[in-house]
Amino acid sequence: MALRLLPFRQYDEQDVVNLYALETGAALANTTVDNEGSNGVFVKITTGDFNAEPVAYTAHSSLGDTSAPFLGSTDMYPANTALVVAAANAGESPLGLTLNQTAIADENGEKLLYNTTKKEELQAVLPGQTVPVATKGIFTLGKKALVGESLSAAGLAIGEGFEVADDGQITGVAGRTVGDTRIGMVLATGSRVSSGGLTDQFAGDYVVVKLG
């Protein structure tokens, strides 16, 4: 699954922003692919114009074939017009990290548009739907959230800071003093391994961070 967040997390719902959707041009796919639509991605704001209509209707592949007149319009897919870019890059100030993944289909390629229950089970939202973004709290990030997919490559150290790198991932910042790019502190680190003949989708390094 396209998840960068592990289950252990502590945050207040008052610190979650429920205003924005990922940009429609983000590289979204099914829930097995790690990309800009994964959860645990640090994102930034690109549009927040409340003078615009709150919902725009556009064409989207989730609608299927709309070429015949009786199948409906090609531009009737609703999307939130307040957008965040799918990933913040190095040197940018992120709004926070996404708590849900944004995806078109499940692991079998079946469109989540037609299976709301499965969508909720996968902690997913559809493209154009509002994705919750946490701005403060304690979160456990898997290797997909780390530059180089390891603690050493990302330069993360317990008690020291971290900042956003490219593609919404994080990297370490030496020292404990809050700086211009430091967005939180590393609280703990660890690693997971597959065992008992079962594959652990989060196998590898992980880090517990305090955001904000």
Low-confidence stretches: none
Domains (count):
1
Task: Give the helix level as a range of percent.
Answer: under 10%
Widest sheet: strand ordering? 1-12-16-15-13-14
Order of helices and strands: EEEEEEEEEHEEEHEEEE
Structural class computed from helices and strand pairing: mainly beta
Beta-strand residue percentage: 25-35%
Mean pLDDT rating: 87
Number of strands: 16
The shape is globular
Strand count, sense and barrel status of the largest sheet are:
6 strands, antiparallel
Distance between the termini: 27 Å
Number of helices: 2
- Rg over alpha carbons: 18 Å
Architecture overview:
By secondary structure, this protein is mainly β. It has one domain. It is built from two helices and 16 strands. It has a six-stranded antiparallel sheet. A six-stranded mixed sheet has the order 2-11-8-4-7-3, with no helix packed on it. A hairpin with a 5-residue loop joins strand 13 and strand 14.
Annotate the secondary structure layout.
Layout: E1 5-10, E2 16-17, E3 21-22, E4 42-45, E5 55-58, E6 77-80, E7 83-85, E8 96-98, E9 101-102, H1 116-121, E10 124-125, E11 133-134, E12 137-141, H2 151-154, E13 161-164, E14 170-173, E15 184-192, E16 204-211
Parallel strand pairs: 3-7, 9-10
Antiparallel strand pairs: 1-12, 2-11, 4-7, 4-8, 5-6, 8-11, 12-16, 13-14, 13-15, 15-16
List keywords for this structure.
212 residues, mainly beta, six-stranded antiparallel beta sheet, six-stranded mixed beta sheet, 16 strands, globular
How would you briefly describe this protein structure?
This protein has 212 residues and is mainly beta.
